[in-house]
Amino acid sequence: MPALHAPTVRTIISSSPPCLRSSSVQRRWAQVHDVRFLATHREPDRIVMEKYRQKLDQKAKEYAPDLVTAILQTPLDQRANVLGLRRIGVKDVAELKRVFAAKIQHVQAAAAPTSTSPFPPPPPAPRLLSDESPSAQPQQPPRSTKAQPGIKTLASFLDVPKTLTLPPAEIASIWRLRHASSATSLCGTVPAATYARMLLTAHKHPQFILPLPRPADPATDTPATTEIHFLQWTFPSAHTATVLFTHLAEYKLRGEFSQPHTTVTHHAELAAEKGVVLLQGNVLEGRGVSVDEGRWLLMCLQKFYGWESRGERGKLLEQFSGGDGDFRLERLVEEAEKVL
Asked: 227: closest CA among 206, 255, 246?
C-alpha cells in the first residue's frame, strides 16, 4: 500500500463530508449585509458643521465680531447681501442708494431712450379761457420762449422788427411771395381770433383724423374712395405750433416712427400787434398726397379746430379723444364735406 503524503491527507479530509471532518476545524459565523440598504439619519454637511462649529465660531469672532452678529441675525437667503454691503462700508440698501445717488442718476440719464420720431408726446393742456372771454389774442401755454434746436421760427423767414412796421395786408402779400417759388409749399394767413380758438382746441384735442376723398379713376377702373389721415399738433416754441399729417394706415403700422407727408406750421409772433398769424407748410413728394389734397386737409383742419369746432364737429372731437364707441366715420365725412 503506497504511503500517503501530508498534502494529500489534507485534501481528502477537506473534501470529505462534514461527518468525517475533525471536530477541531474552526467554524466561522460571519454574516454578509447589503450596504446599499444602510441609511444614515444625519446629513454629512451637518455632521461636519457640528464637528467644527466651536472652532469656526471662535475664529470668526476673532476676525469680525460685528459682521458675524449681523450675518447670524439675517435670514439665510439675505446673508449674501449683508456680506456685499459690509464689504463696501455701508449698513443697508438705503444707505447704499444715498452713497451712490449721483452715479445712479447719471446711469439712468445715459440709459434713457431717445427717439427720432417727428411725433413728440402731446403737451399738457393749458388753462382754457371761457367762451365769453373778450380776449381774441392767442393764449400760449407757459413755456420757454427759446425755440428747440432745428425749429424754424418766423425770424427764419422775415425780419420781424421791420415786418411789424407794415400793415397786415402788405404782410400777407409779402408772405405769399416769399413762398411762391416752391411748388409744394402751403402758405396763408389766419386771423388772430380764429387762431386763438384753434390753439385752445388743439391743446384739448392734440390728435384727430380727417377724411380725404379720392375720385373714381375710369382709366384704372378704380372706384371713388375716402382715405383717412392722422394729424397731431406739436408746440416746439411759445409762438410756434406745427401740425403733422400722415396716412392713418402707416401710423397704425409704425406708430410714432411713421413719417408725415404734410407739415403745417403757424407763426404767432405778429398776432399781438398785427392781429394776424402766418402759416407755412410743405407737402413731401412721393408720399401719395398732392398739393391740392394737402390744401384740402388744411381746410378741414380749420373747420374742425376753428370757429366751426362746436356743434357736431366739436362732438366728434370729444368722442375721438375720449375713445367713445359712438364715433362714426360717416359723420366725420359728412362734416368735412360741408362748405361751412
From this structure: 246
